[in-house]
Each structure stands twice: as C-alpha cells, then as structure tokens.
Amino acid sequence: MKPIEARPLEWIDDAPVQVSVARDMAATPDEVWAIIADHEAWPDWFPSVAAVEVVGRPEGIGGERLVTVKGMGVVEEEFNAWEPGHRLGFTVVAMSRPSLNSLNELVTIEPSTLGSLVTYQQGFHPKRWIAPVIKRAARSRIPDVLLGALANLEREAIAQRT
After folding, report:
1. Burial class (CB in 10 A: 0-12, 13-18, 19+), 64
2. pLDDT band for position 56 (50/70/90)?
3. Residue 45, CB half-sphere, CA atoms under 13 Å: how many?
4. Residues linked to residue 82 through DSSP beta bridges, in sequence order
5. Does the pLDDT value for residue 53 go beyond 80?
6. Which of 10, 107, 120, 152 has its CA 20 to 30 A from that of 83?
7. Rg (CA), the chain
8. Separation of alpha carbons 109 and 120, rounded Å
9. What percent of the chain has a predicted confidence (pLDDT) above 90?
C-alpha cells in the first residue's frame, strides 16, 4: 500500500474532479444507515466493491477499513464523517495501485416525503497521467455506477424490513 494525501471532509467540495448523485428512496434514514454502516455488506449493494475489511474501529471518525475496488485494487479508507442516520464520509489514505493523489467520498441521508433523500459525492485529485480518463469517467460512467449503487441500497434497505 502506498500512502496518498488524506483530506478533510470539506475538501470534497473543492476537489479538482467532483461527482454527485442523489436518489429519493422509499426507506427511512435509519434503514439506509443500517445498510451503509454494515461495512462487510457493501459488496451486496455497491457493484464496484469486491470486499471490505474493517481494520480499525468499525465506526466513528478515525475508523478505518480496507476496500477492494474492482479495477482499482485495495484502498485504505479513514472515516472523516460519522453521524448515524445522517452521513458517512471517508478519505482514502493509501492505495495498492495509486492512480490518485486524493479521494474523498460522502454519503448524506436526509428525510424526504418518500423516506430518504440519499446523496453520494466523490471528490478526486487524479495523478496527471490518468486525469483525462478520470475526468471523462466522472461525466459518464461514475454517475451511472453510483446511481446503480443507490438503487441497490434502496432495495437492500427495504428487504431488511422483512
């Protein structure tokens, strides 16, 4: 694993490459939170995630996990936001195949008339050699992947009711 630059939560709004998608879900904020806070279950709803292993505290700011991302290798994440029922955010602190200088992600859950409005944001600072590829993907492929993950998240949250 090679270290990359950890960033504070608010950096996501200033990142050189940003992606943000949202989905109104027929699941309560607590139901959505139960799914996203279950680290090892991420591969069940997030198609790009192959495996998750908690390596530090399982919750709270400063908690850490190793995530195997399809096509990217392993990333080490450190939580920089942890507000049960409201938001979970992390910064990547190391990568097995470092193509990025920095990466932050933030999932925000807000009550809505349907149940929950869930927003998934990513902020990237790609290395120069891959920046054109990441920028293209941020305009097309990445939003589609995130929207698919949110649709799966909704299905998982609803399925947990039974």
Report:
1. middle
2. confident
3. 24
4. 88
5. yes
6. 152
7. 15
8. 9
9. 94
